[in-house]
Amino acid sequence: MNAMLRLIAAQQGGVFSRRQALDSGCTPDQIVRYLAEGRWERIRRGQYAEPVDLSATRSWDRVRWEHRRRLHAVMNCLRAGSVAVSHQSALVLHGLPLWGLDLSRVHVNSLDGQSGGLVAGVQHHLGKLTDADLTEVEGRLVTTVPRAMVESACTTSFEVGVVSIDAALREHDIGDEAVQNLLRVSEFWPGGPTARAALRFGNRLSESVGESRLRVLLREHGLPEPSLQAEFHDADGFVGRVDFHFPEYDTVVEFDGQLKYDGAGSGVLIREKRREDRLRALGLHVVRTDWSDLSRPAHLMATVRQALTREKRAA
User: Fold this and answer.
1) 238 found inside a domain
2) Residue 261's pLDDT is what?
3) Which of 162, 185, 204 corresponds to the end of one domain?
């Protein structure tokens, strides 16, 4: 790839078009040869990129990378200004969590009044957008984070919607006024009831995908609503901040993310053990959970319910 084409690709998620390759000095024969030799790969018709080894990359990062390239390829094929990247495709560009979202299609919102529908793997939507609903990311017109989080929540389950909404509220400081506006404008959207329920339940204090999913499980199993990120102190000072606190039951629930202790030395593990001992010394019952527990929701909720019931009896 020559320097001009490499610069073009770098501004488009690594993707470039056949026309851009020709304009940068490549010949048609070179394009055919580079594809045959595996030096380039076809992302979609007339759209190419250099291969990237993602074998050592986490699965969700690979999915994000691949979808990002596909959406850039799609945008290269469409007339500039005719659409904006939207829904979960917009969340990809905004860098928000994608857990549970269907990324098999690229989502765009039509800006020129053309018909919607699924065309060649691209879902065209006909939502009414204002200037306030649009921004630019990586050189592409895209719906804003607040708009995109509700758009995508309309296409999925309550749980998946909450995961994205919690992250958006946390990472992009979306205020109550914006939330109320989104509740109003989405009233008659397809999938709107699910999205609005997730929006009302959203909480910026939920710090990870796992914590968001655990919040949903607690709600669905009729357990009390916990306080999030509660802080505790003892005679020696600050003890720590816990993920979930049930103050009426003197119980805390901690979600240990999958990667929390990766590469951690013994010092980290010892400090975590001492922190938990100090919490117990304050009279708190500590329940620890992790990603594996989320795959056994009934068992996990029974464990939490048992802890709450025990503490209530003890009181």
Assistant:
1) yes
2) 45
3) 204
Residue 115's pLDDT is 73
How many degrees, rounded to 5, is the angle at CA 291 between CA 247 and CA 244?
10
CA 156 from chain centre, in angstroms, equals: 13
65 with 190, same domain: the answer is yes
State how many domains the chain has. Answer: 3
Residue range(s) defining the domain that contains residue 198: 59-204
In the chain, the DSSP E strands lie at 15-17, 41-44, 47-49, 83-85, 106-110, 117-119, 122-125, 134-137, 140-143, 227-234, 237-246, 251-256, 285-290
Which two structure tokens, joined as six digits, stand for 225?
């609503």
Let me know whether 222 and 293 are in one domain: yes
Asked, for residue 296, whether it belongs to a domain, the answer is: yes
* Distance, CA of 182 to CA of 196 (rounded, Å): 8
pLDDT of residue 253: 96
Whole-angstrom CA distances from 129 to 144, 148, 282 are 10, 11, 52
**Is residue 195 one of the residues assigned to a domain?**
yes
CA angle, 184 then 190 then 193, to 5°: 55
Cα angle 186-189-193, degrees, rounded to a multiple of 5: 75
Give the pair of three-digit tokens for residue 222: 């009729």
304 CB burial (10 A radius; 0-12, 13-18, 19+): buried
Instruction: Tell me the average confidence (pLDDT) per consecutive run of 10 residues in the chain, 315 residues long.
Output: 92 95 96 96 96 89 94 94 96 95 96 85 94 95 97 97 97 93 94 97 96 97 96 94 95 79 60 89 94 94 92 51
Report if residue 54 sits inside a domain. no
Q: Which amino acid is at 110?
A: S
DSSP code per residue over 214-232: HHHHHHHTTPPPPEEEEEE
Query: Domain check: are 158 and 274 in the same one?
Result: no
